[in-house]
Amino acid sequence: MASTDDDVSRKREELERCPPGNDGRDVALFYLADALRERFLEKGEIDDLNEAIMLHRDALELRPVENEKYDRSTSLNDLAVCLSHRYVKLGAVDDLEEAITLGREALQLRSPGCPGRAMCLSNLGSDLQRRFTKKADSCDLEEAIQLHRAALELRPPGHRQRYFTLSALAFSLSDRYEKQGSVRDLEEVVTLGQEQLELRPWGHPDRDIFLHNLARDLRRTFANTAVISDLEESIELHRVALELRPRGHSDRSSTLHELALCLSNRHDEYGVTGDLEEAITLGREALGLHPPGHPDRGESLHSLACDLRKRFVKQAAIHDLEESIKLHRAASELRPSGHPEQPSTLRELALCLSNRHDKLGVVDDLEEAVTLGREALERCPSGHPGHGKSLQCLARDLRKRFVQTTAIGDLDESIELLRPALELCLIGHPAQSSLLHELALCLSHRHDKRGAADDLEEAVLRGRAALELCPPGHPDRGVVLYNNLRALANYHRARFQAQHAIINLHEAIAFYRHMLRFRPAGHPDRASSLHDLA
Prior knowledge:
Blueprint: H1 4-16, H2 25-43, H3 46-61, H4 71-90, H5 93-109, H6 117-135, H7 138-153, H8 162-180, H9 183-198, H10 207-225, H11 228-243, H12 252-270, H13 273-288, H14 297-315, H15 318-334, H16 342-360, H17 363-379, H18 387-405, H19 408-424, H20 431-450, H21 453-468, H22 477-499, H23 502-516, H24 526-533
């Protein structure tokens, strides 16, 4: 096979045989430009691309109108492709704008039914996608999706270019999911990814890429739908991808990171310590491959910090929590105001500080947690995918501050935040039980403060709903059951005080006695439980 250097040399000789005025000069210009672009793709020399652009412009001047060979539209398309390459290489927006303008003209000349229309659709769609990435104009993204769908219809199963269009459409839909949060887009991305993987069988050099991408999208689907089979399949695919990305592979760190996320998610679902330990091990290796200055370091810092906090919750080792806070603070420096992932780091750092306050009782930690929670909520307004999480985060810490200060305004605000958070939570989502429990706890506290019967009755209903979502074996069942028992005991005590029916007093005593099983001798809260029973 001839080298790109040989091809360029041969095409130069052909151009020399076609001086200005020669009928075949436009063809010779075009083919030399094409050869230079191929050499640029192989060697990355920008001079080759610049010359290719110049030659394509010369050829286009010699092709003022379309002919039966589609020469003008072909030149328009290939010049647009070269300008798009240069935009990717150098970042000059003018190149991208011109590529889009040329691409539109090329597509207009390739009307439905013309050969090469799919190519024009696909290339223009990709350039609009690039402009969306640069300028975040949703109109560009919507048009890119429309164009890629049209191209895919012209490239049915078996078409040699179908894979590229599948990939481009999946990329655009993934971006729309990130912007709008539509699970339907993400589910379509998974379907497209499954077809792409089938087109990259065992032994294909790119199979690891599509294993990784499909596994990532299945994990994201699980995060929205809580269908555990998606998470299990994601873990299985990531393990296979990791085998294809041994130590030293340039993409190993991304699979380490994603597999750690999946294992951490499965730990959240089942509470298996081995999953969390493996997630931390993989997270440390991923962070080691992302030294200071690496574009993915912030994400690795954040994920490892989250898993260390989870281990603290499980094992109460304060050094895990201290390391988590340190890592989150480092991540926050890499995610300043305006960074799309800043809210998640703010929320997680707030959670760590809230946990440290629970452990050590430092008021400043709780105050900072509330401040960070408010900042996260400001960055995630209504409609933002992180709005619900931010509402819950701030509500939790306001409730804790109420317990410290008895400022009823904090409790009222917490309840006001939890109600819309619960409305945003899909039925069956793992966060539903914790939201119900948190709301029940706040309502119970407010009843204790104000004595409103409606608050206590709602607390009982919300608590029971939370308990139904925490069956035996669920890691949160104990705390939910205890607080549910407390609300029921208080409910019957309040009814006895109002109606003097002895059966309500007996019920209250029974619930208070049952609560004591969760507060054995030596438990820091046993005294308060004994006080309630007395």
